[in-house]
Write a sequence for this structure.
């Protein structure tokens, strides 16, 4: 390796052997590796061998390592198996909470601090995974997606009714799903543009907005003919058909005149999937209780109409 | 025998020790192999004082976990307990929650100030008498002496070839060291779980893994620090020797060699006059007894922990040669200079430095005491839901959600009444509260409980975008109450 023909020489100052390399008169010392470093290096080499024996390590030709494509190691370690075990352990931990939830009435849930805490935690987690995409992380809703905190319920706000809605969905692909359809009055040319504007004025007037007497009179006539069968003659809606109350201050698709006109023109068709089959019953129970306890849940005896607590 | 004959005589009947200061300044090197130090046993008032301090401090450490203190049925009855699992610290009548960790901070500040004050007054008394490193090292040297004899015997034994005699002495010493170390590590974990249970579980293998881990670690550190590393810990690992140089001054009492009296030193022959020479006969007993391997006659130095054993050794010799004791003594640097000038010593314990430390100590202690005396057993925190910020109901009223955290530090369950102050038109709903008693809050003994609240402001009472409110919780029996400010957001004007 040496560039020149010198014999092995030692540096006068440090006593260390030189490599024989010289650059512009500067000689390179052949300083040995520190012992501690070397021993650690040897130890890591030895450890690597131990690791190969114990843990999955080497890619192997098909058939050489059983059913897998790598050596399995004596410990037969598998992160997939570990995750599966951890999930199982987690489910076992939650099992007692879900068992207590099964068959419990909403009053029992509310009056049992431990169960209440469990439902709020389990429900919040399931809500975040499955519902928050449409209803928002705080269940505050968006235009077209109901706010679940308030006391407005299209298909009923009791614990049982909420559970039914989650289970079967709304206009979903399930035989028991909630179903109704508002006609597209404008698109299907059932009403003219001016008629739609008059109906919108009338509907808005039910919650205090003002419009010309002529428009109101005209709008009411059309309303009673076209809308009252679902939204009821007085505008308070019908939960059996998921028809919203038009006299309150809540507007699922917005309360501006243009927004109301748009709804009448096209006739909305909001869909919520059926969660039965996707989520187990215990999770649906927890979700229903969580939504109920957001503050707007209604007692079982509640009949139609806004009866928020 | 020939070795003995080589001994120089320091004075009639007093051989000069061959002890050399391991940590002498003129032989100090940057990279130096450790030299074993063989401290000789000293006798005298400071040695006795150190035995006493050792007995008291070790007694406190080993026995305190077994003291009991009745706190009622729901709380542990161990007088001093750091309960990590239950998140409590118990100290006799004091119970501290994690959020009150500032009491611990305060205690550490007090300890630091006390250390500064003691150093300004008496030098490194902490290092010399009370530091665990000193106490356990002293104990380990005592064991060593028990098996291997005093300084000279130990040196001979270490030089001797391996024999049965050497083997059993070494084995015995290390066994007893390990037992003491195990007792030390074992006692540590007793401060963190019930002492009696842990002791029983420890030996049946049922204690928690962390107990074994910490007992093991502390057994190891006790054995190595007190048994094998000793003075290396003080000299190289501990920051205090560096800091203490700033804490002490020329008016602090330090273990000092009175060079005004001692020099010029030299062997004293029979019938030689003491006139014109120093009292130091250079017998080197002060070096022989020093556990730190320093020569105190070189003046104050970093390695010296001021254990005062050289005072005992020197006083012994001074009595034998008929000179006054106190050649090595607790003295201030200024006074040694005064002695040299033939002046009288002056002691100023009240000086700016000590007064600042003392006043700071009293202030911190007073603040902590005030905090402890006025400590309440009821605390209240509230958090308003931010998502959604507010909910408008179908009739136009506005609802906000809250989490109210009620902390009951009393050792009994309590029943509280909730009130919302600030707007009488607010409607309150507590999730889970009984219908017939909707404002009742139940909290278990020594617990924190979260309540979910909904406040609703009717549409006709909405006056602005927000309203300031206050939660008040009142104990039904004692009337003790706590409040926390909050608000309701209406969204009006958005």
């Amino acid at each position: 390796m040496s560039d020149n023909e010198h014999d092995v020489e030692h540096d006068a100052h440090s006593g260390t052997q030189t490599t024989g390399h010289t650059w512009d008169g500067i000689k390179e010392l052949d300083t040995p590796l520190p012992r501690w470093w070397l021993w650690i290096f040897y130890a890591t080499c030895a450890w690597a061998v131990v690791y190969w024996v114990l843990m999955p390590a080497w890619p192997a030709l098909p058939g050489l390592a059983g059913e897998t494509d790598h050596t399995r190691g004596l410990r037969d370690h598998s992160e997939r198996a570990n995750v599966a075990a951890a999930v199982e352990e987690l489910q076992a931990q939650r099992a007692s909470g879900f068992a207590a939830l099964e068959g419990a009435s909403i009053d029992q849930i509310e009056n049992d601090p431990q169960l209440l805490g469990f439902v709020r935690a389990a429900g919040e987690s399931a809500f975040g995974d499955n519902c928050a995409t449409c209803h928002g992380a705080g269940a505050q809703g968006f235009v077209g997606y109901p706010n679940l905190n308030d006391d407005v319920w299209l298909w009923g706000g009791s614990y049982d009714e909420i559970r039914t809605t989650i289970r079967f969905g709304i206009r979903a692909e399930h035989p028991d799903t909630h179903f109704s359809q508002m006609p597209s009055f404008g698109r299907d040319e059932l009403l003219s543009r001016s008629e739609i504007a008059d109906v919108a004025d009338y509907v808005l007037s039910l919650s205090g907005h003002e419009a010309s007497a002529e428009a109101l009179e005209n709008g009411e006539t059309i309303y009673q003919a076209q809308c009252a069968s679902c939204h009821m003659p007085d505008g308070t809606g019908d939960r059996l058909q998921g028809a919203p109350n038009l006299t309150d201050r809540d507007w699922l698709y917005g309360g501006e005149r243009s927004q109301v006109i748009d709804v009448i023109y096209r006739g909305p068709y909001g869909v919520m999937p059926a969660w039965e089959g996707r989520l187990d019953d215990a999770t649906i129970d927890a979700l229903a209780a969580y939504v109920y306890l957001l503050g707007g849940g209604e007692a079982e005896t509640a009949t139609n109409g806004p009866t928020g607590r | 025998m020939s070795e003995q004959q080589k001994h120089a005589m320091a004075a009639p009947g007093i051989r000069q020790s061959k002890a050399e200061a391991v940590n002498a300044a003129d032989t100090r090197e940057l990279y130096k192999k450790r030299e074993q130090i063989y401290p000789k046993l000293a006798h005298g008032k400071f040695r006795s004082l150190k035995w006493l301090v050792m007995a008291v401090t070790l007694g406190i450490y080993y026995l305190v976990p077994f003291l009991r203190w009745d706190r009622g049925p729901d709380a542990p009855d161990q007088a001093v307990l750091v309960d990590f699992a239950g998140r409590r610290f118990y100290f006799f009548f004091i119970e501290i929650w994690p959020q009150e960790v500032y009491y611990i901070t305060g205690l550490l500040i007090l300890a630091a100030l006390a250390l500064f004050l003691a150093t300004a007054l008496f030098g490194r008394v902490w290092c010399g008498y009370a530091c665990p490193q000193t106490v356990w090292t002293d104990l380990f040297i005592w064991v060593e002496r028990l098996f291997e004899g005093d300084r000279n015997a130990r040196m001979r034994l270490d030089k001797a070839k391996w024999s049965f005699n050497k083997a059993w002495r070494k084995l015995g010493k290390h066994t007893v060291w390990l037992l003491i170390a195990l007792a030390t590590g074992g006692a540590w974990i007793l401060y963190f779980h019930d002492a009696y249970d842990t002791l029983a579980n420890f030996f049946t293998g049922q204690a928690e893994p962390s107990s074994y881990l910490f007992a093991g670690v502390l057994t190891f550190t006790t054995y190595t620090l007190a048994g094998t590393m000793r003075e290396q810990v003080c000299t190289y690992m501990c920051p205090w020797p560096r800091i203490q140089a700033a804490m002490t001054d020329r008016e602090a009492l330090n273990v000092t060699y009175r060079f005004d009296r001692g020099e010029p030193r030299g062997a004293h022959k029979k019938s030689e006059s003491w006139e014109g020479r120093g009292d130091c006969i250079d017998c080197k007993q002060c070096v022989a007894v020093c556990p730190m391997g320093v020569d105190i006659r070189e003046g104050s130095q970093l390695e010296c922990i001021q254990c005062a054993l050289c005072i005992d050794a020197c006083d012994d010799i001074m009595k034998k040669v008929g000179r006054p004791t106190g050649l090595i003594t607790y003295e201030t640097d200024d006074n040694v200079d005064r002695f040299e000038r033939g002046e009288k010593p002056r002691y100023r314990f009240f000086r700016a430095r000590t007064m600042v430390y003392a006043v700071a100590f009293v202030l911190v202690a007073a603040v902590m005491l005030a905090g402890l005396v006025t400590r309440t057993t009821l605390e209240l925190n509230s958090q308003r839901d931010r998502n959604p910020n507010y909910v408008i109901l179908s009739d136009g009223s506005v609802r906000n959600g809250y989490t109210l955290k009620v902390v009951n530090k009393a050792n009994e369950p309590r029943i509280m009444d909730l009130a919302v102050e600030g707007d009488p038109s607010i409607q309150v709903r507590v999730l889970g509260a009984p219908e017939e008693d909707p404002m009742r809050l139940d909290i278990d003994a020594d617990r924190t409980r979260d309540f979910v609240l909904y406040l609703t402001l009717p549409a006709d009472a909405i006056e602005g975008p927000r309203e300031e409110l206050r939660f008040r919780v009142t104990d039904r029996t004692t009337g003790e109450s706590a409040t926390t400010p909050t608000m309701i957001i209406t969204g009006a004007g958005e």
